[in-house]
Structures are given as C-alpha cells and as structure tokens.
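[recover] target loaded
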C-alpha cells in the first residue's frame, strides 16, 4: 500500500445506529489486514463507554479499542482512543483525554472542550498514521446525528478533517436497514456525502437471493456499492462497549441445569461498568451467567457478583431501594458466596466517604467486609500483578475509591489487593478472572462453599477463546466482503464523483406549487 501525504491509508467505519456493529467490523478489518502482513492500528476519536482498560503506559481507554488492538496483534495505546467519556449521574460524564481524566461535563459544558479535543483527535490519528501501515477508524453513534454535526469529532467531522473514505454499517436484524442506510446518507451535507463510499449489511439471516433486490435498489438510489453482507453469527464479541449489548443470560449453559452447573448472578446496576470482567466466566463450560435486577432472581445462584460501577453511591442506593442490598447481606450471613469487584467491593465495605464522585460525604456501606472507602480526587490507574490460590494473576485497576482494610480484623484474609471474610470476597482489580488457573481455583472454592458438584474444565483458555473469536471476525471480512474493493478504497480514498442524494425534506415530497404551510 502506498502512503499519502497524510500518512498511512485509513478509513472510517460508521454506523446507522449505536450497536450496529461498528466495533465488530472494525475489529474484523483489523484482523484481516494484519493477516496480510500489514502493521494495523485501530482508532476511535471519541468513545462513550463505561468499559475501559489500562494500557501498558498507564492510560485509560475504551475496552473495545484495546480488543481491536489485540485483533491487530499489538498493545493498545492512548492514541487509539484519545477521548473517552464515562457517563455518571445527573447527565454528566467524566472526560478522559489521552488516558487521563481532566474533569466532568454535561452535554452543554462539553462544548467548551470541543476545539481542544478536535486537535487532540487529529494529532492522535496523525501519530498512528505515521507509525502504522494502515489505520481503521471507528465512528461513534451515527454520522446522521445532524444536531451534533457542528461539533462532531468522531464521524464526518473526522472524515472531512482527515479525508477518510467512509463505510456505513447497518444492522439488518433490527429491521429497516435500507431506510436507515439511505436516510443516513440523505441527511448528510454534500461534502460529507462525497466521502461515503458504500455500505455494509450486518447480522443477516436468511437466503441471500431474497436480499439482492433491496441491495440493487440501494445501489441505484445512492450510486454506491455494498461492500459486503455479513451473516448473523452469535457470540462473536466479548468486549462490548456498553450495556446495550448485554443479554440477560450470557452463559453457554441453558436449562435444564443439573447439579454440576455453577450458577452465577451478576447484579446489573444502572451505572454498571467494566462488566467485561464477567466475560471469562461465560466461556467456562458448566457455568451459567445471568444478569439480575431483583432479589428473587438470585435465589438459586451459587455466586453473586457486584460488578464495577461509575457511580458507587448512587448504585448502592438503587440496591437498597430494590431490596437487593438486604438479599446480598442475607446471603453473606448464610455463608453463600459473594464477590465484589471495584465499585462492588466498595459497596461491601463498612463506610464510604465520597466527596469526589457523588459529593454525598459519608455513606454506610453494606458492612460485609471490614473496610473503609475514601474517594480520592486522583484516579488510580495500574496493571498490578499478584499470586492468589497459588497462581499468578495479572489485572488492571481504574478507581477513585481507596480502600483500607482494618488491620487484624478477625476471620479476614487477604485476597488480591482486597480481602475475604467468610464467603465474601472483594477486590478493586479488573480482569483477574481472565487468568485461567486463578479462575479455576476461585470457581472450585465457590463451588465447595456453595455445596455444588461443579468441577472447572481444565482446558479452558480465555485468551485462546478471545483469539478464536477475533479470527472469526477476520474470517467474516475475508469470506463476505469485497476485499479487493476494500484495498482499493484504502489506497485511493473515496471515489470521485459520487452522486449527492437529496434530503427527504417536505419540499421534496410535495408536488410543484403546493405549499407546506397550513
């Protein structure tokens, strides 16, 4: 591939909606290009997600970009996701720039950041294009969010600034994909339309010949090709960006459940974050994982997990209002296993002093672990290591809450960076369950305490499972997209002379001479 004056070739994967498949297709393109011997990097200028990860250089970025980097066979870096928005309470988000939190903003005050962030995004993309052979960019939401176009730095604003060809992905499983694709294009101004090179249909089920008439009409209406129709394949993606993609039951096991099935209930709080911690359990044979929001849904669970939270105090209040706090406390008194991770660990403590995240001051925790939580202004970011259950553990941590365990508290033993008392464990570390030997030892301990016959499968390798799914994404691109056309698009940019699709406004729908006023 030739390099342009702007650096390495790049393209933007946009979508008709959130969760249309942008992250998946970006990862698939990255994997396929890496197989061709190219140095590939992913990029998402602005990401809104509560699932994040810490890079080797100590920066916080979106989890999806880290997995796209894995698809490329490289380590993630701050340049791959220069702006990360982490939604909290009161319609505000924490703004993370180049891996460091710089403040909180709502939809209106965020405008004050935009010019600075536009420059940060442009510099980050230029950095990657100078280092790699090709960069695959992922958009955010939809490029047709015309109310946000003036300040856009992630979709057509980025494409225009960097002269990127754009593929628009539509999720046909939702229905209305042709209207969504045509409408997305029609709502863009002509200069933006000039960069939209074509479409990709995602999650198709059924006979391809039944789809072809619609594809032909889309080509005729827009003057643009369809670069591929990707079939529906369940369970491809582990590291989803947000709770839109959460299913109630994520485990491989289905009813009926026998005595050797380990039942795991994950409390789905309103501001759940880093729920990707659970992914390693979903690929473990014999483990049934489900998300719960009511006390009775955890009645038969062998393990209840309180996951991370972007708003610990608010989610703890929600637990109490729904009766979940009492149900978790009752389990602990009965000696039934409970695991708290990061924000969930903070909830298990005796007291929480939060003058930073919620400003609530001192708030009583669930009191299930002998610990105190104090929120610090500076966020802790790290990639710690330890030995637990006799096995090495590599993890990452992202938190404002600093937890101090009472020294010499009775019946309390260390657990990773946290502690365990009885059948209640707590740690701030994310990703610990991805360590195979540790995960198996932990699950065996849980099964023993729960009186379950479950025995962990000795051969389950989470890293290999993730790699296999990334390979499957690469196969989707190779088998179902016009890869020759993709290479030409990367090398030459958006074709010249693409037709402008007129907007579907009222004036275009009424006969000549008929007024829309009435």
């Amino acid at each position: 591939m030739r390099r342009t004056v702007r650096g390495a070739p790049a393209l933007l994967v946009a979508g008709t909606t959130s969760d249309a498949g942008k992250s998946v297709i970006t990862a698939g393109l990255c994997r396929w290009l890496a197989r061709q011997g190219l140095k590939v990097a992913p990029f998402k200028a602005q990401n809104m997600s509560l699932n994040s990860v810490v890079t080797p250089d100590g920066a916080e970025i979106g989890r999806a970009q880290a997995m796209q980097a894995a698809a490329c066979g490289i380590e993630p870096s701050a340049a791959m996701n220069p702006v990360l928005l982490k939604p909290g309470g009161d319609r505000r988000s924490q703004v993370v720039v180049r891996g460091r939190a710089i403040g909180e903003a709502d939809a209106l005050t965020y405008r004050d950041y935009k010019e600075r962030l536009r420059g940060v995004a442009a510099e980050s993309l230029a950095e990657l294009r100078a280092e790699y052979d090709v960069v695959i960019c992922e958009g955010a939401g939809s490029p047709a969010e015309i109310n946000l176009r003036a300040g856009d730095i992630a979709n057509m604003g980025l494409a225009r600034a960097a002269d990127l060809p754009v593929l628009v992905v539509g999720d046909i499983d939702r229905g209305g994909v042709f209207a969504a694709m045509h409408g997305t294009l029609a709502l863009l101004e002509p200069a933006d339309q000039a960069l939209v090179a074509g479409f990709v249909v995602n999650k198709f089920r059924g006979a391809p010949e039944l789809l072809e008439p619609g594809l032909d009409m889309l080509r005729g209406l827009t003057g643009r090709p369809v670069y591929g129709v990707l079939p529906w394949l369940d369970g491809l993606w582990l590291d989803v960006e947000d709770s839109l993609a959460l299913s109630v039951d994520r485990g491989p096991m289905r009813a009926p459940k026998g005595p050797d099935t380990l039942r795991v209930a994950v409390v789905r709080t309103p501001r759940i974050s880093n729920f990707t911690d659970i992914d390693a359990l979903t690929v473990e044979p014999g483990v049934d994982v489900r998300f719960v929001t009511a006390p009775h849904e955890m009645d038969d669970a062998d393990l209840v997990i309180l996951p991370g939270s972007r708003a610990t105090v608010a989610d703890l209040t929600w637990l109490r209002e729904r009766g979940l706090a009492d149900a978790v406390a009752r389990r602990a008194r009965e000696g039934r296993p409970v695991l708290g991770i990061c924000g969930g660990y903070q909830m298990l403590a005796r007291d929480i002093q939060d003058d930073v995240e919620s400003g609530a001051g001192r708030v009583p925790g669930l009191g299930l672990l002998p610990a105190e939580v104090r929120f610090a202004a500076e966020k802790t970011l790290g990639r710690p290591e330890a030995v637990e259950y006799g096995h090495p553990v590599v993890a990452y941590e992202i938190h404002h809450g600093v937890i101090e365990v009472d020294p010499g508290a009775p019946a309390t033993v260390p657990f990773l960076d946290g502690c365990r008392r009885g059948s209640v464990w707590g740690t701030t570390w994310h990703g610990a369950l991805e360590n195979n030997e540790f995960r198996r030892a932990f699950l065996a301990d849980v099964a023993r305490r729960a009186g379950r016959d479950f025995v962990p499968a000795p051969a389950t390798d989470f890293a290999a499972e993730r790699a296999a799914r990334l390979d499957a994404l690469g196969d989707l691109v190779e088998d179902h997209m016009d890869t020759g056309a993709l290479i030409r698009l990367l090398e030459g940019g958006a074709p010249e002379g693409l037709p402008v699709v007129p907007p579907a406004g009222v004036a275009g729908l009424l006969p000549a001479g008929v007024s829309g006023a009435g």
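[recover] notes: The radius of gyration is 24 Å.
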